[in-house]
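Worked example (supplementary).
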Amino acid sequence: MIQLSSPEDTQPEEEETEIPQSDEAREELVAEIEKELGNALIATEITPEVDVWARVTKEAWLDTARILLHRCNMKYFNFLSAIDWMPSPYGRDLDAQVDQPEPITPEEMSWGITGGETRFQMLARVHDPENHLGISIKADLEESDLSIESWSPIYPGADWHERETSEMFGIVFLNHPNPVNLYLPGDFEGYPLRKDFALLSRRIKPWPGIVDVEDMPGEESEDEEVEA
Amino acid sequence: MTDVTDTKQMAYIAAQAADARVNLEIETEGMTLNIGPQHPATHGTLRIVVKLDGEQVISAEPLMGYMHRGYEKLSEVRTYPQVTTLVNRIDWLGSFANEVPFILAAEQLMEVEAPPRAQWIRTALFEMSRIANVVLFLGDMGVQLGAVTPVFFAFRDREFILNQIEAVTGGRFHPNFDRIGGLRDDLPKGWIEETQGVLKRIRDFCDEIETLVVGNEIFQSRTRNIGVIPPDVGLSYGLSGANIRSSGVDWDIRRDGGVGLVHHELDWKVWTHPDGDSFARFWVRLQEVRESCTMIEQILDGIPAGPVMAKVPRIIKVPAGEAYVETENPLGVMGYYIVSKGDLTPFRVKIRSASFNNVSITPWLLKGVYVPDVISILASLYFILGDIDR
Amino acid sequence: MSVVLADLAYWQETTIRLVVGLLAVLLPAGTLVYLFLFKMMSFMQSRLGPMEAGPYGSLQLLAEVGKFLQKEDILPKAADRLVFKLAPFVVLISTFLLILVIPAGPDLWFIDVDTGIFLALAVSSISVIGILMAGWASSSKYSLLGALRATGQLIAYELPMVLAVVGVIIQAGTLNVQDIVLAQATGEIFGFGGIGNPFVITQFLGFLIFLIAVQAELTQPPFDMPVAESELVTGYLTEYSGLRFLMFFIGEFATAAIFSALAATLFLGGWYVPGLDVTDNLFNVIGPIILLGKTLLIAFFIFWFRFTYPRFREDQLQQLAWKVLIPLSLINIVITGVLKVVF
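After joint prediction of all chains, the assembly is encoded as:
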């Protein structure tokens, strides 16, 4: 049986997992992509037995889809979206009753797995339903030219995902069969999922902050563990 | 994947294409029909604009967004425990199942693992929300085809499952019971025995549906060879769950992936069907309800003793990182891609909901069918509007 | 009735006919709605149905009528006003004309014409015109689709219905409905006359075809495509509300009752029960009750199918009519004719 994972117990477990595990299937997958894409593959990262990420150049975006489908047996289209890496200019201090009324200067941007260079990053995921492998693909997008090739000729399912991404982030998909808004009304202004799009309800209504701290089952209420 | 019915499916598609061509050549003036946003057959406010020639569909275009709630944006200003309240409302018929992948993704980032008892109870509730969800589909499919009686049986028997969920979580529809590191509470006394009785009722319900609906000749003539999805097309559109298994793709995340839930310790079977038509989708779901009963029975017999909550800080800060966890939800694959920057709130949450992908195939699928088949195909794809509009 | 009314003035006779006619249409219709739509349907679907208005909800029907009367009478802006308002009456007229030919006792009938069954089948088609008017005048796409479906369906099922009745007519040797009842009462099956000759036994195939055709004529599931809620909202009824909807509703269930009565008359011996002499005056009293009993029996089957089956698709319905029912009823006519000549 699995140990009760309290902070004391998790320590040795973590040490065990730090021993580099081999994950042949995912390494082969990365090797295959690298062979086909060459320099267009910027970075990869494998978490053994869990997941794999790859970052490609914007130019190789469409080729990546083709390689994944035809060479790597990634028949299953999972999702496609984007990430805005700019920290929210409105702050997110949960103890404050309202957000900052005026935009604050964005801090330095920092990127997640496989790094990044630009504010906007494409994020897509495909899956191999026979060998049960999934891979997340990223690509940087220059803010001056927010356009990228559409995946829908290769994965028809990308159609709606790209329409959603387009209206939410303002990214233009080239060669998209039906580039109209999916959710938002046609005359909607702004791109809601960008970090500088203010969430109006947060601006006009006082926010209670953290109110849902609850006692652990079988424990008395104690405040010593609170780390704000 | 099977090749058994490939030729049949290709013939069907060719026939559809030929029909569409003939319609264009005659050049009769078509009619545009808005099915929805307020229409008895759309579960919620989906609107489908179909161009008709007589009763035959030339093109169909779903329009949605009438209920878009922006959960991805809202998640960015809520703490991790608060997000579960939101995601409860995505697939409102199987709410508990929505929480699980989010919690699992957060646990993966925090490198916390729920204690075994919590995992087992989680799996039981996960499967019960599947039953609560799919049982309603089994009844609702009848209504969409014009038979009103099955849905009353479905509502009647779903109530027992909801009562059991309520007994544990306190909520019939929106449990909000899953926590990072375990569960809110332990099982109430006497719950296991009661649930065993309820499972028997659900099995009886499945038998009833089998004789009342599946065995009915009209039902079969309305669903067989209607809305055939070849496996490759289904995969490229990202169909999941029973929709893709009924096209013969033997893929179930509960068996093939599955972190944090205990499906791999149970003895059960993944059902597939080679046909890929509306009937197959109904049939596979019916079998899945039975399979869920089997799973819950085994879980009830084998829940280990112990705590239901791991030691986690009172105020949860998730370490920086990215994680994608998906589970096999009642409607199909549901996953959360969480980007954390070590804050109290997630930096970005991408919600990959099953119905969104499942419905995106409709423009392809509805070409050339008749108006009544539009309804039966949509019903058999089985979507919840909250799962599309998030 | 003809005997009773013999000595009355014309206006008195007309008033009595009118009142009795209204009762004869509305009472069975109400019985059907309460007994089958409210109660039987509820029990089949494991619920109670109406329980509050009156004992076991028996006054629910009045409450429903009251509700419909209170509702706003909505007329769509783009509707063809005159046709829209006229349509429910046309449907009801067909229903009221149908009741004319059904005898409820040896001396109880509204009109006694020699071509009674012919008249009944002819006027039953009038409702199609009303439905088409409703669908067209509503200026709604759902209504139009529903009305067109209804027209196609009613035309397709008129034929097997008429052909199924032809078998009965050949066997009875008359078009007069009263004489058909008498033929069943006094007839004998291959020399055995103990129970008369209800044509359901010798014309069983015709009976089945007639029931299926009636189901389609009434647009009840599995043939309810014209009003298919899950597809066409409610088809030609979509834009109707209040009193006008109520009239369609009454028309639907009254027609169901009258077609059941017609089936009972043609195939189950009408007001006659074995054991009593046909000429017995008692039948003038118990005849209507017996007929109602037989009507409810037939209606039970109609509603049983209604609650159980999903609906066909439009093309499947046409296939059933033209490829199965019509050939079968033609075969039935041939066999009946041959046997009629042989015996």
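Two points are worth noting when inspecting this output. The first helix of chain A runs from residue 7 to 18. Chain A has one domain: 24-227.
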